[in-house]
Amino acid sequence: MAYIRKRGKTWSYTVDTGIDPVNGRRRQKTTSGFKTKKEAELAAAKVESEVVDSSYVEVTKETFDKIAQEYFEVVAKNKMRESTYENRLSSYNNRIKDRLGKMKIKDIKPIHVQNFYNGLIEEQLTTSFVRTLHNLISSIFKYAHRYDYIKVNIMDKVDAPIPKAKEMHTWTLEEVNTFLELAKDYDTYIIYYLAIYTGMRRGEILGLRWKDIDFDNNKIHVTQNLVLVNNEMKIQEPKTKGSKRQIALTSAEMLELKKHRIKKAFETDLVVSTSIGTPYHPRNLLRNFNTLLDKCNVTKIRFHDLRHTHATLMLKLGENPKVVSERLGHSKVSITLDTYSHVMPDMQSASAEKFSNYLRGQNVVNGDKTKATKK
Fold this sequence. Notes:
The model has no long low-confidence stretch (mean pLDDT 89). The protein is elongated, with a radius of gyration of 30 Å. It is 48% helix and 14% strand. The relative contact order is 0.07. It comes from Halolactibacillus miurensis. InterPro entries: AP2-like_int_N, CB, DNA_brk_join_enz, Integrase-like_cat_sf, Integrase_catalytic, Integrase_recombinase_N, Integrase_SAM-like_N, Phage_Integrase.
């Protein structure tokens, strides 16, 4: 039963909202400032109704930063991979904390967050990074809403920035051969060779062990990944279930791996290592890659574009997208189709010609045309 009383010229109410599970004491909510007794009674009745149907939420007075730190400790640390956790925590501390952290979470409105995004984009931050921040802020508000710190998740009304698709650059077969011919004189040759011939990611190549290579059956088993966590190299499991995979090779690729093993100064667990046997630092690899790019006449691309080159060339050869998807470790073939949609028009044209030739009795087999026999 609500307690209604007049304080000076205004009315207030006090309502029991339940029992504190920690100390067993009765919880109460008191609100004042109502002009009439009727207004206070109606407001009290609304709270009592929410208490009865278990929808009542005592909105917290904590700051956004206090809830964010709790989210990182309770949820993120146990849910995210270590490298992802460190990256998200760094992004929060460097970009979000100063702007939203001091505000009470209950006082943050959609416009505050939207203006925050607009300011970041004006600072020339990429929309993909701003979207990462959006996902992090959304996760914190979702946590706050789930555990009854707030009544409404305001992020439902915030528009996520739409990331611009990164322009993909790939090499032609001639450029691949030009680059690999130059790279042969460097210790990093096997890295570029594997990236182009297998489509493996940088971290997967740097984390590849000799025991992951099946020389008898010409296969590579991708089971781990070398990543940077706070500038420290660490070995982790692949990010997704699909990333753990087998990649089939030919005896020619296996021969290159054997030659690399013989050339190494001494045996190490990792296929790729420094001259003293330590893991090869990703940043040193990128420096080496850029040095080689400057020395040969090929399109300037990112290291990750070697993976795109592998996929693009395979698709242009008419390989089944499902097979390409499995080699790349995509969780769904639709990801492969969306990523390499630029190749599809050429594939459609080639397929149309093959089908037309077939119907007209001009089957092409190994480059030879055979005309249908008239009866």
